[in-house]
Design brief:
about 70% helix, about 750 residues, transmembrane, cell membrane, mainly alpha, two-stranded parallel sheet, 3 domains, transmembrane helix
Length: about 750
């Protein structure tokens, strides 16, 4: 899109206010930490010490509100340590202007590289640059520098201690993540009743998997309700899709379709009840009507063929969901639970080493599940080698993270020099704006830039008016600053514009504690923020890192991952008796379907990368005309639809994996090998903007059709393979027209 339109879109997006769940108790706890630190230092020390210590408590509190699954006390302590080190190192170099500028640029570069570890690390690292800019302006000695660093660290320790002493809804975020995943599958089941090809967004499942990773200490303390359900939700999804699909399930009209709709609705009711119980930490209450539907009718099965097999698996999975409840299950009216004998396949819960639950449908008798295992989350010390590997991997000119780090370093150094050359006392606000605004991509940088400017105008206007009318003493200014922080913590998830309003007011009130005149502070804050934002936006425009050229690479990676998923599933039909092997050819640990699970996770990760790149590319103001970058918005949408269909066809096939004693289907293996041989060339063709050729896949499919020509109806594997071939052809057409 044109530059003016792109800037307008990002400005509207940055200034918009989002609806979000508010957590008043969490906000009050964070504000209490700031109040304790500021109040004590103001009482026992000086206003300058109060201002310095406030940054530690404030920034550590912000770190605890980031979207991270690490323990909140750990986040607060980690942020406090980084802030303290940054403060002390900055004081050591503050007396030498050239040395300080070089140190500041290096620190900003390292903070930019921290985005390679994730958004939380990037935000916390950016705050260390901000505190270096602010606290070094306070005159002090070497011992005073140590005192400032200690006070900042103490602010983080206070926040961590409050989290431990005043817990608010322990495990609440993990409960919400797991409940959201189950609710997403329930919503999917309801949509399938009316649209058998309804899409499914895997984001809630990916979030739940991230939330399931815990340290060994957390694993010992984790509520029993949080173990096992995620694996059940994973296994529900392909069964639901297979049951609803008219190609491999029941026909679109007739008695069988009505039975399918009843089963889908009942399964959604059970999943919703389970999600509600997990979210609230209550017993699972399941309506009797739903359990009535989820059993074999007394008159006999209504469904036949693959649809009946999928229905029986759905009934068995629902029973497992009931039995997996660690708290007592309460039915809304008296109703006996369905006995195991009514199910087609008694299932055994077999937990793999990553915490996922798999079902061994070959087990003749139900067995007791083994002790729960969990996804391991490394400690902060264990992250050090990961961080070093990430740093080495991203330290190349073509890396968007490295280019972002260079941009931040240059912009911070330039605005710091400009701020020192200009008359205002608080010239550091310009580089501080840069480091808080700049992000690795265009859309977020420009959104935050406009949000920062608009929010600052409103925030300092409100704070200036209040200060001008009331003329509060230092204690009053401190109380107003804490109130601003409380509102910021409360409204942080509603958008960066609201956050900037609260931060703008907080800065004015906090500097009022140190005796700064509000009239001077307000004007300086506004135009220095505008200066820093303008430099950040200009530097990104001059030295960008566009996402549009990466679309083809992301699409090729997604196709490769989805094709590997399809190959792994088809290989089970060709060799049902052999355990699946891992990527190195050795038998996979855990369940024989381990290879399929790993391929599915790779597919989801590749899709997430594609979604992020496509979303950011859609907001960029340039059109790349090179041969390797031609992929129009319509072509990208068509290609996305084709790859999603490819994954959906594989999911339908996964719901009908054969038993170990089933007859092998050699043509499924031939089709899988043809697909496996074709994928590398297809991925490279997408990257090179060349035509895709899936002729070997179509030839293998034709031979398969000839083999089953005399059968009364084609097998589920063949029908799914036909859907796979059609999706590949749609992909070739979409990419060819790009």
């Amino acid at each position: 899109m044109p530059w003016l339109r792109a800037i307008g879109e990002t400005a509207r997006s940055g200034l918009s206010v989002e609806r979000a769940a508010l957590h008043p108790l969490l906000a009050l706890r964070g504000a209490l930490g700031v109040a304790l630190v500021v109040g004590l230092t103001l009482w026992l020390g000086s206003p300058e010490l109060a201002v310095s210590s406030a940054f530690g408590a404030f920034s550590s509190g912000v770190a605890t509100f980031q979207r991270s699954w690490r323990p909140r006390p750990v986040l607060a302590l980690s942020a406090a340590a980084g802030l303290a080190v940054s403060t002390f190192v900055g004081f050591l170099a503050a007396g030498q202007p050239v040395a300080f500028v070089l140190l500041l640029a290096l620190w900003a570069f390292m903070a930019g590289m921290a985005w390679g570890l994730g958004p939380t690390a990037g935000v916390v690292a950016a705050s260390t640059v901000a505190v270096m800019l602010v606290t070094v302006t306070l005159p002090t000695t070497l011992l005073g520098a140590l005192a400032h660093a200690g006070l900042i660290a103490a602010g983080g320790c206070v926040q961590a201690a409050l989290i431990v002493l005043l817990p608010v809804r322990r495990w609440g975020e993990r409960r919400d993540a797991l409940a959201d995943a189950l609710a997403a599958v329930a919503d999917y089941a309801r949509r399938l009743r009316h649209d058998p090809s309804a899409p499914f967004d895997p984001e809630p499942m990916m979030t739940a998997r991230s939330a399931a990773a815990v340290t060994p200490r957390q694993a010992r303390r984790r509520p029993r309700q949080l173990g096992g359900y995620r694996g059940l939700a994973e296994r529900f999804r392909p069964v639901l899709a297979s049951l609803a699909d008219p190609d491999v399930g029941a026909p679109m009209v007739g008695q069988e379709r009505e039975r399918v709709r009843e089963l889908l609705s009942a399964a959604a009711t059970v999943l919703d009840a389970t999600a509600r119980a997990i979210r609230r930490g209550e017993r699972v209450r399941i309506p009797q009507d739903a359990l009535d539907v989820l059993q074999v009718p007394e008159s006999g099965p209504v469904l036949h063929g693959p649809a009946r097999k999928a229905a029986m698996r759905l009934i068995a999975l629902t029973q497992e969901a009931v039995e997996a409840a660690q708290e007592p299950v309460e039915v809304t009216r008296r109703f006996p639970l369905i006995p195991r004998a009514t199910f087609l396949m008694p299932a055994r819960a077999d937990r793999a080493e990553d915490g996922d639950v798999y079902v061994d449908t070959d087990a003749p008798e139900p067995e007791q599940p083994r002790g729960p295992r969990h996804l391991s989350r490394p400690s902060l010390v264990g992250l050090v080698p990961v961080a070093l590997r990430t740093f080495r991997r991203e330290l190349r000119w073509s890396s968007p993270v490295c280019r972002h780090a260079v941009r931040v370093a240059v912009a911070v150094a330039v605005t710091y020099l400009l701020g020192n050359a200009l008359p205002p006392e608080h010239g550091y606000w310009a580089p501080l704006t840069v480091v808080m605004v700049m992000r690795p991509d265009f859309s977020r940088t420009y959104e935050r830039g406009f949000a920062r400017l608009g929010g600052t105008l409103v925030g300092v206007g409100i704070a200036g008016t209040v200060t001008g009318l009331l003329h509060p003493p230092p204690w009053g200014s401190a109380a107003l600053a804490v109130a601003s922080i409380a509102f910021m913590y409360l409204l942080m998830r509603t958008g960066y514009a609201i956050t900037s309003v609260c931060i703008g007011a907080y800065v004015v009130f906090l500097l009022g504690v140190a005796g700064s005149l509000w009239s001077q502070t307000v004007l300086e804050r506004i135009w220095l923020t505008a200066l820093g934002g303008a430099v950040a936006l200009l530097i990104y425009a001059v030295f960008p890192a566009w996402e549009t050229p990466r679309l083809r690479d992301r699409l090729a990676d997604w196709l490769t991952a989805t094709g590997s998923y399809a190959t792994a599933v088809l290989d089970r039909f060709a060799r049902p008796r052999e355990p699946a092997s891992g990527p190195t050819g050795t038998p996979s640990p855990g369940h024989p379907d381990r290879r399929i699970r790993e391929a599915l996770l790779d597919t989801r990760a590749a899709r997430q990368e594609w979604d992020q790149t496509a979303s950011r590319a859609g907001a960029e103001p340039v059109r790349h005309r090179g041969r390797l970058s031609r992929l129009s918005r319509r072509s990208a949408a068509d290609a996305q639809s084709a790859v999603i269909t490819l994954g959906r066809a594989t999911m339908l096939l996964e719901a009908h994996l054969p038993e170990p004693d089933a007859e092998p289907q050699p043509y499924a293996g031939e089709f899988a090998r043809a697909l496996e041989r074709t994928l590398p060339d297809a991925a490279q063709a997408i990257r090179d903007s060349e035509p895709l050729d899936f002729a070997p896949v179509h030839e293998a499919l034709s031979r398969w059709w000839e083999e089953e020509a005399e059968r009364p109806s084609p097998s589920v594997a063949l029908r799914s393979a036909d859907l796979l071939a059609d999706a590949l052809e749609d992909l070739a057409e979409a990419v060819g027209s790009g």
